[in-house]
Amino acid sequence: xxxxxxxxxxxxxxxxxxxxxxxxxxxxxxxxxxxxxxxxxxxxxxxxxxxxxxxxxxxxxxxxxxxxxxxxxxxxxxxxxxxxxxxxxxxxxxxxxxxxxxxxxxxxxxxxxxxxxxxxxxxxxxxxxxxxxxxxxxxxxxxxxxxxxxxxxxxxxxxxxxxxxxxxxxxxxxxxxxxxxxxxxxxxxxxxxxxxxxxxxxxxxxxxxxxxxx
Length: 214
Prior knowledge:
The protein is mostly beta strands.
């Protein structure tokens, strides 16, 4: 894959800073693929073995798709206490050449302990309530997570839109910087749009599983 693509990808994946403590400290209960008996991962709406495809909009990456492969869920303790973790692999797929490259293995896609959310990258899935729907308290918590990760950008305004499961951060004085993240009612990222750094691209969901037991 071209060096330009790699540099832009670094910009995308480094927007949300990787927390150094996001490492499980002990073997714990796991939920993995088990054919027709594959369980949904608690506190989330995803199943192990599901794949989510995102188009990338960035200079030099028009033909690149990012694939998130949900591998497992488990009870993990990355720092703030035991919670549910969603783990997966991230692939880069050149849709022109057909080449697929494994970019990140065993990545913490999302962690939730009822009060604290963490992710090792931009979260493609966020927690849901027992009814399978993202609530306003959860959405507000995710917004606070994004805000902490974007702190160095000095974005002046923020707003949560609970009816459309979205959040936005933006400036009106210093520059035109902004950040938007939109989710489905069951917590799957639809798109990720930002104007913060020239090398940071946008993501748009274009293919997802039916979210039924495999």
